[in-house]
């Protein structure tokens, strides 16, 4: 399931430059598909934009749609990456989903994208 249509973008004011935008979303919530209980986490989205940047209010509205959506951490984090890559087409993007402990176990999901036409480099972060 994708909530991609909610996301809005704007022109990168410095497309000639490689720079990292980091957005931290400390109140992310989704539902555990097994128990129906809420899962809480912090999403850190880092990216090097090409021509488009995502607009923050639309990102907030997009992420809020996961509050009633049941999915495992891995699916949520990778789907968010896929959706953000689709609308911004960045040179590079990384998402870290750091979820609060459940049953004494803490999980982080780290997923990354590099544009095929971007020169191979080490992750900026």
From TrEMBL:
Highest rank taxon of the organism: Bacteria
Enzyme class: oxidoreductase
Pfam families in UniProt: QueF
Keyword Ion transport belongs to the record: no
GO BP field: tRNA queuosine(34) biosynthetic process
Residues engaged in binding substrate: 73-74
Pathway: tRNA modification; tRNA-queuosine biosynthesis
InterPro entries: GTP-CH-I_C/QueF, NADPH_dep_7-cyano-7-deazaG_red, QueF, QueF_type1
Active site per UniProt: 32 (thioimide intermediate), 39 (proton donor)
The protein's Enzyme Commission number: 1.7.1.13
Compartments where found: Cytoplasm
Molecular function GO labels: preQ1 synthase activity
Task of the protein: Catalyzes the NADPH-dependent reduction of 7-cyano-7-deazaguanine (preQ0) to 7-aminomethyl-7-deazaguanine (preQ1).
Family assignment from sequence similarity: Belongs to the GTP cyclohydrolase I family. QueF type 1 subfamily.
Designated name of the protein: NADPH-dependent 7-cyano-7-deazaguanine reductase
Natural source organism: Schlesneria paludicola
Gene: queF
């Amino acid at each position: 399931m994708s909530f991609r249509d909610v996301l809005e973008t704007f022109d990168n004011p410095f497309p000639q430059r490689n720079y990292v935008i980091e957005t931290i979303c400390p109140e992310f919530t989704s539902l555990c598909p097994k128990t129906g209980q809420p899962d809480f986490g912090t999403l850190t989205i880092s990216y090097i934009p090409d021509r488009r940047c995502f607009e923050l209010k639309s990102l907030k509205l997009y992420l809020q749609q996961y509050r009633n959506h049941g999915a495992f951490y891995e699916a949520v984090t990778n789907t968010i990456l896929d959706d953000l890559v689709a609308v911004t087409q960045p040179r590079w993007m990384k998402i870290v989903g750091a979820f609060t402990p459940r049953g004494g176990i803490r999980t982080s999901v780290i997923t990354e994208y590099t544009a095929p036409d971007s020169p191979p480099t080490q992750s900026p972060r």
